[in-house]
User: What shape does this take?
Amino acid sequence: MHGVSTEVGATEGGRSWLLVTILCLSFGIVFFDRNSLNFLMPFVGKELRLDNVQIGLLSAVLSLTWAVSGFFVSVASDKADSRKPLLIAAIICFSLCSVLSGFAVSFLTLIGARFLMGVAEGPILPLSQSLVASGVPAKSRGLAMGLVQSFGSNLLGSFVAPIVLVAIASALGWRSAFWLSGVPGIVCAVLVWRFVEDHSQGRSKGADRKKLGLIEAFGYRNIAICSVLSTLIVGYLAITYTFLPVYLTQVAGYSAGQMSWLMSTLGLAAATGAFVVPAISDRVGRKPVMVVVPLMGCLLPLAALAAPPSAWTLAAFLFAGWMIIASLSLVMATIPSETVSPVYMATALAIVMGVGEICGGVGGPIVAGVVADVFGLAGAMWILVGLAAVSGLVALSLIETAPFRTSTPLYTAVPCSVHE
Assistant: This one.
């Protein structure tokens, strides 16, 4: 019997990591498509004669629709007690929207395609993480969620995408790059349909099906704190990608070539952090990691402000500081999923993600841009220091949710009215 149990456990473990692998690949393709316009903008902007305001709007509209769609579709998935069909539909739709971008002939048609892409992509992360939370053992939940959210998105969206897309655009034109980028998504949809099991179905039968609205969600201390952390850290991410390349070349005195590989260090750091940071949280707890890792984010802007003569020295500090981004999977997925009932899991994850996308992703670069115009680009770097420092302090208010640190799930350990 012992041998049979071991074999069954190994089989279940294999299925769990197959689930993680497929969802990690799928979300990686999402970011491959989401970032595609950024890398193809030199080609697209020239042909469609886009100005800087229009380029900014293309990014903002995707973030906005991503957040809104993520919330409403996740609410529907919780109500229907079903994630997999909606996930497959979303993957197919964003793939078609990528193809649609290749047919754009003006700013209006392109922003329309990006609008639809945001609608399609928004639900994918909360739906995927809900499947992970219900399909992966609690002792490995942090690592699994970190891989799904951070590894594939950085490996494919930050490393592979610029190389592949620019090569295709140079050889065949930017429209062909958009058309071909939609193919991997269809493959992922087939993989999800064939191999992913929805373990969340049936778990909430007989449970209270009351909708989890914004007011009710923010009644949970961890959801409110995670929403604040999501805003701060997503803002940190957006401001860094927007202003660090310009700061390094125009103020710090690095060449364009040095800047390009220094920025690539961020992708390597995030991919590495996808393994390291969540795995540590599985062993020492979520709260200690969320206090320490965001504070490491101060290293990146402070090193950029110091402008060390050796680019390798700066790269080391950038690598260490960018670990703050690996904590997003804890903020957007792991901690919220361990805070609320499985009945409301996708909705809670979508709320935290949506607040971060709208307040941090849209508002962050705008505020930093105003500060940079008034005080210079160094002002944007000091904003990053503030965001990282405040994130570490805010995390002190979190309630620990790691399974080995809590005897019962948080949502059953206290009365619902208390929401802690």
In short: The CA atoms of residues 142 and 334 lie 6 Å apart.
